[in-house]
Design brief:
Elements: E1 6-11, H1 14-22, E2 31-33, E3 46-47, H2 49-52, H3 62-68, E4 73-75, H4 79-96, E5 100-104, E6 107-111, H5 116-119, H6 122-137, E7 141-146, H7 149-158, E8 164-166, H8 172-177, H9 189-197, H10 211-218, H11 220-228, E9 245-256, H12 259-279, E10 282-293, E11 298-309, H13 312-325, E12 333-345, H14 356-372
Parallel strand pairs: 2-4, 7-8
Antiparallel strand pairs: 1-6, 1-7, 2-3, 5-6, 9-12, 10-11, 10-12
Helix pairs in contact: 4-6, 10-11, 12-13, 12-14
Bound molecules: magnesium ion.
Cofactor: Mg(2+)
GO biological process, one term: SOS response
Keywords: Cytoplasm, DNA damage, DNA repair, DNA replication, DNA-binding, DNA-directed DNA polymerase, Magnesium, Metal-binding, Mutator protein, Nucleotidyltransferase, Transferase
């Protein structure tokens, strides 16, 4: 049944490629883009393919990159410039289908079902996108074409840079069988190490486990692994306008009364919400929280603002005020949640003159989380929580 309708399009070493385009002298050289500042305490946000040969990669401390690649060209990020190119690229993507789900400044899913008559077979559409991006922006984009989001994303990553990889339904089994387990969405270093103890190194090694076994061993993550290791993923491509609110909530194994711990959870969840807002280029005017006590009684509170927000710090601070206001933390919590509603596209909201610096910090952190998994990149406040919290 499944057709090749899902595309994942991902720019190649986007920030450094833009810098190389702006200054042709940088072409063919090891170019490393840091955060807004280039201090040695910062991290690499993008390394050109030439720099990657030295072992430099995103999320690596600048100090370490300088040791590996002392002759590299280190540049501060110019987000305004990258945003301009990003806009051009998304205008191209949106020509082929209204179903474009933005994952970040340089990456999106497309559902091209029903677009054949206008633009041809999905593989033809992928080729057209690649050609047009190259022509209009002088940059290369890798595209994966497959039957679902998970496989399309694996496909776009398969032959970077300037790749075009198709994973047909009939090829899923052989493709997944030999795929390294840490390529599976949600399998970070810690989980991969646990799986290695079980003798699991490739996706195919999971197939002999039943769904129940994986659920018992690894909980929700095990269930996900069961399906993804078989290349199964039923998530739909969602365009921005379909998203009404973004929230995150957690049910605790044991009820929690320690306020510091609850605020640490709140911050972690605010970061997740902020990350998803940024990924979709959204901001929101309403912040809401939800609490549930051991007797299952549930309360929520919300606050609407004049200015739309999406930074983790702003979300956290407002949520914290909401929790404190009616003394909602007076009893142990079974569940805590935070979210943002009343969403609008970034750029269309009212201007917030003071948000700029914090925005860039969030942007860099978001970029890294997207690439390296959420829990590897965390801010100091979260250290209060254990790793598996
Ligand atoms: Mg990219």
């Amino acid at each position: 049944m499944a057709d090749l309708n899902i595309l994942h399009a991902d720019m190649d070493a986007f920030f450094s490629a833009v810098e190389q385009r702006e200054n042709p002298e940088l072409k063919g050289k090891a170019v490393i883009i840091g955060g807004v500042s280039l201090s040695n305490r910062g991290v690499v946000s993008t390394a050109s393919y030439e720099a990657r040969k030295f072992g430099v990669h995103s999320a690596m401390p600048i100090a370490q990159a300088r040791k590996l690649c002392p002759d590299g060209i280190y540049l501060p990020a110019r987000h305004g410039l990258y945003k301009e190119s990003s806009r051009e690229i998304f205008n191209i993507l949106k020509k082929y289908t209204p179903l474009v789900e933005k994952l970040s400044i340089d990456e999106a899913f497309l559902d091209v079902k029903g677009c054949e008559r206008l633009y041809g077979h999905p593989v033809e559409i992928a080729k057209k996108i690649k050609k047009e991006v190259k022509k209009k922006t002088e940059l290369t984009i890798s595209v994966g074409v497959s039957v679902n989001k998970f496989l399309a994303k694996l496909a776009s990553d398969f032959d970077k840079p300037d790749g075009l990889t198709i994973i047909k339904k009939d090829d899923v089994k052989s493709f997944m069988y030999k795929l390294d387990i840490d390529k599976i969405w949600g399998v970070g270093n810690v989980f991969a190490a646990k799986l290695a103890e079980e003798g699991v190194y490739k996706a195919g090694d999971i197939w002999s486990y039943s769904l129940e076994e994986l659920k018992d061993k690894f909980g929700k993550a095990g269930v996900k692994l069961f399906f993804l290791s078989r290349g199964m993923d039923n998530r739909e491509v969602k365009s921005q306008s379909e998203i009404k609110s973004i929230s995150h909530e957690e049910t605790f194994i044991d009820n929690i009364s320690d306020q510091d711990k609850l605020f640490a959870y709140l911050f972690k969840m605010s970061e997740k919400v902020s990350f998803r807002l940024h990924s979709n280029s959204l901001k929101g005017n309403t912040i809401f929280i939800k609490v549930r006590y051991s007797d299952f009684s549930t309360y929520s509170r919300q606050k609407s603002l004049k200015v739309a927000v999406n930074s983790s710090e702003e979300i956290y601070q407002i949520a914290k005020t909401l929790l404190n206001k009616d003394n909602l933390l007076k009893k142990p919590l079974r569940l805590l949640g935070v979210g943002v509603a009343n969403l609008c596209s970034e750029g269309k909201e009212q201007l917030n003159l003071f948000a700029d610096e914090d925005d860039h910090l969030d942007q860099t952190i978001d970029e890294l989380k997207r690439k390296y998994g959420f829990d590897k990149i965390s801010r100091a406040r979260k250290l209060y929580l254990n790793n598996d919290d």
